[in-house]
Write a structure and sequence with these properties.
Elements: H1 2-15, H2 17-23, E1 35-36, H3 38-47, H4 60-63, H5 65-78, E2 83-88, E3 102-103, E4 106-107, E5 109-111, E6 117-119, H6 123-127, E7 128-132, E8 148-153, E9 159-162, E10 165-174, H7 183-203, E11 212-218, E12 220-226, H8 227-230, H9 234-239, H10 267-281, E13 286-291, E14 297-302, E15 305-306, H11 307-327, E16 330-333, E17 349-355, H12 364-371, H13 376-398, H14 424-434, E18 445-448, E19 458-461, E20 478-480, H15 490-512, H16 517-528, H17 540-549, H18 557-562, H19 567-575, H20 581-621, H21 626-645, H22 649-677, H23 688-692
Parallel strand pairs: 2-10
Antiparallel strand pairs: 1-9, 2-3, 2-4, 5-6, 7-8, 8-10, 9-10, 11-15, 11-17, 12-14, 12-16, 13-14, 17-20, 18-19
Helix pairs in contact: 3-5, 7-15, 10-11, 13-15, 13-16, 14-16, 20-21, 20-22, 21-22
The chain binds adenosine-5'-diphosphate and magnesium ion.
Protein name: Glutamine synthetase type
Family: Belongs to the glutamine synthetase family.
Domain GS catalytic: 182-614
Length: 695
């Protein structure tokens, strides 16, 4: 059937040029060719005395690096690539304007003494690179006088090829091995999860010999707006969000954007097709595409997989989105809140834990069948409930991206209160278990009967969906819904893995000491039950109730970042070998500086826009709040000066937050009032109408 379908596609493609352009089928047989993995890699590895099995043991970097390098070289040349780079993710990198990865691109050749071109790409070139560690955010871990940094190949994520370059996923550390990047702590947290997940799973009767890993699927939201209008917005160009702008008369009133047709009349569909095409060539399964809730807002979702691969793919997907959008006359906005009063963008981080052979810890039937232990699933869930309750502060810290300031709690994303939704069915099961029942979990089934013959009654899951919860369980996975669209989600997953690993370790220690697993789980559920909340998280009364019950709530992102170095959290990360105390303090400083830098750019941009656009428009038109605008410039400059004068990273960030969320919001209102009265022909900035309505 597949062959037939292919033949059919082939025929369609050859027969209809316009259909081919629209349906994006051209690269079908090229899908996956630009990732050095599986069958594609095997073909090249075989020629050099290795095979795809060679790549399964990370120790190939010591035993077979030359063979692999030769295979990679041939594979690259066949794709027209002759350049390589070690490709890394600097600390606190986020996706507002190409900021996501670092790379130095090198030719894979040299001249020999006869000036013949020969291969200059060996095993040792492939597995390690050296670079400058001081020019990236490092929180004091490196200096210009002690700048050495190293790039080491990450065997868990495959090499990618795009254009003339191959990208070697790498960890980036200082001369002393301190993590300067997003990937290193993630890899360490994977090791902790593997170790303690395997211990617990084995004690519960399961087979963990294949190893334990976290799987994630990252839904990527974004805006695509007309590029000519984007060039009329210095704020979007420089900071990724509109710092001013009166609402358009139309917004989300009709609920007519979400999942609406991806109209071929605009370039958005063609752009999304090309983005998918590029991604599929590189083995990145960008499966789902649709419009999102706000005008000109869209989403892509891949098929989930192991976290290092998914995160590497996601940072590439974000780059491809930006670049391909430009080719289609569009600008992609990945920032969390580009526009006021319409929805912002998130990146739902779907997360599950599984054996590498595929038994999902979060799928009750799989766990019970594998372990032959009816209580095993409840024990795992109890450990996770305890982890969320105890370490919700870290989950909050991990989503404290500057753009998320405008989303969390604004009734489009869950509030900054870290509860979890388990659903009625699962909750009553765990409650019964907590109170002594040892029955196994039997998910309820539900039949929907529409009362028609034509649509037959059908089965639906027992659980509803709760889109107001920051961390709902969805049967087989948790979905961290508060994550920001621009984030590199490594820290998010580092936190999830570490807090799970710690609880798995604590449970395993006690079981090994002779305690009964179910008793430990019951005790944990009793202690941490408050964190389970199935109701409406947008409701203010509920928020009050959750806050009073002691569920972690940290409204300020700046304050949330500060929890990285509390005594509890340093102990946690050190115990799990994920971060040292020094690395945590450095990272905290970097995140605060990142926040401050973001706000400073926004404030300076606002000053320029008022001086260069708003004031001239108001003068020209002889309407509007001229004096207030002039005073605003003074206020903004004083605000920036005050930040500069502050001593520590955290002090600066705290002042920046007030400037951004109080002062700048007041000043924006003055600018927007001016926009309301200035005649259109005198208004020089692109308006929300021009930015948000592509078609
Ligand atoms: P929804 O609207 O329910 O959030 P989407 O299709 O938009 O669904 O996205 C769901 C994401 O979750 C996809 O990336 C999918 O691959 C991923 N996912 C599904 N199951 C799992 C799992 N067990 N572990 C991790 N991610 C998963
Ligand atoms: Mg989702």
């Amino acid at each position: 059937a597949a062959v037939k379908a292919l033949a059919r596609r082939e025929a369609t493609r050859n027969s209809s040029v316009s259909f081919r352009a629209m349906a994006n089928l051209a690269a079908y047989e090229d899908f996956g060719k630009n990732v050095f993995a599986g069958k594609v890699a095997d073909e090249y590895l075989q020629k050099h005395g290795a095979s795809k099995a060679t790549l399964d043991d990370p120790n190939w970097v010591n035993t077979d690096a030359d063979k692999v390098a030769n295979a990679v070289f041939d594979w690259a040349i066949d794709r027209g690539a002759n350049v390589y780079c070690h490709w890394f993710q600097p600390m606190a990198s986020s996706g507002v304007r190409h900021g996501l990865t670092g790379q130095v691109q090198n030719m894979m050749f040299k001249f020999n003494s006869d000036y013949e071109v020969v291969q200059d790409f060996k095993g040792k070139t492939l597995i390690k690179g050296e670079t400058d560690g001081s020019s990236f955010p490092n929180g004091g871990l490196r200096g210009t006088h002690c700048a050495g940094g190293y790039l080491a190949l990450d065997t868990s994520s495959p090499i990618l090829c795009r254009g003339d370059t191959i990208f070697i996923p790498s960890a980036f550390v200082s001369y002393y091995g301190a993590a300067l990047d997003e990937k290193t702590p993630l890899l360490r947290s994977n090791a902790a999860l593997d170790k303690h997940g395997a211990r617990l799973f084995t004690l519960l009767g399961g087979d963990a010999s294949s190893g334990i890993q976290a799987n994630i699927g990252l839904e990527q939201e974004m805006f695509l707006i007309p590029r000519d209008q984007y060039y009329r917005r210095p704020d979007l160009q420089l900071t990724g969000r509109t710092i001013m702008g009166k609402n358009a008369p139309r917004g989300q009133e009709m609920c007519d954007h979400y999942m609406a047709p991806l109209s071929s009349a605009t370039s958005a569909l063609a752009a999304m097709q090309e983005m998918q095409d590029e991604c599929w060539r590189m083995g990145m399964p960008l499966k789902t595409r649709h419009r999102e809730v706000a005008p000109n807002q869209f989403e892509f979702a891949p098929l989930f997989g192991s976290n290092t691969t998914q995160i590497d793919q996601n940072v590439f997907i974000m780059q491809i989105i930006e670049e391909v959008a430009a080719k289609h006359g569009l600008a992609a906005l990945l920032q969390e809140k580009p526009f006021n009063d319409v929805n912002g963008s998130g990146k739902h981080n779907n997360w599950s834990i599984a054996t590498s052979s595929g038994i999902n810890f979060l799928a009750p039937d799989e766990v019970i069948e594998e372990t032959g232990n009816d209580e095993a699933f409840a024990v795992i869930m109890a450990a996770l409930v305890a982890a969320i309750d105890e370490h919700g502060d870290l989950m909050r810290a991990a989503i404290a991206n500057p753009g998320n300031d405008f989303r969390l709690g604004a009734c489009e994303a869950p509030p900054a209160i870290m509860s979890t939704y388990l659903g009625d069915d699962m909750t009553s099961y765990l409650e019964a278990f907590m109170n002594g029942s040892s029955a196994k979990y039997e998910p309820g089934t539900k039949t929907l009967d529409l009362g028609t013959k034509e649509v037959m009654p059908f089965q639906v899951p027992a659980e509803d969906r709760n889109r107001t919860s920051p961390f709902p369980y969805g049967g087989a996975r948790f979905e961290f819904r508060s994550v920001g669209s621009a984030q590199n989600v490594s820290l998010v997953n580092t936190v999830l893995n570490t807090i799970a690993a710690e609880k798995f370790a604590a449970f395993a220690d006690r079981i090994e000491a002779g305690e009964n697993p179910a008793d430990i789980a019951r005790e944990a559920l009793k202690k941490h039950w408050k964190v389970i909340f199935n109701g409406d998280n947008y409701d203010v009364e509920n928020q009050k109730m959750l806050t009073e019950s002691g569920v972690w709530r940290i409204d300020s992102g700046v304050e949330a970042i500060s929890v990285l170095s509390t005594e509890k959290n340093v102990a946690l990360f050190e115990k799990m070998n994920v971060f040292t105390g020094t690395e945590l303090t450095a990272r905290q400083d970097v995140l605060h500086d990142h926040y401050t830098g973001t706000v400073e750019m926004e404030a300076l941009c606002m000053i320029d826009m008022i001086n260069q656009h708003v004031i001239p428009s108001v003068k020209e038109s002889e309407v509007g709040p001229l004096d207030e605008l002039a005073a605003s410039i003074t206020t903004l400059k004083a605000g920036v000066a005050e930040i500069h004068a502050a001593e520590s990273s955290v002090d600066k960030a705290q002042l920046a937050r007030v400037l951004r969320l109080e002062t700048m919001i007041d000043i924006r209102a003055i600018c927007d009032a001016a926009e309301e009265v200035v005649p259109a022909e005198n208004w020089t900035l692109a308006t929300y109408k021009e930015l948000l309505f592509l078609d």
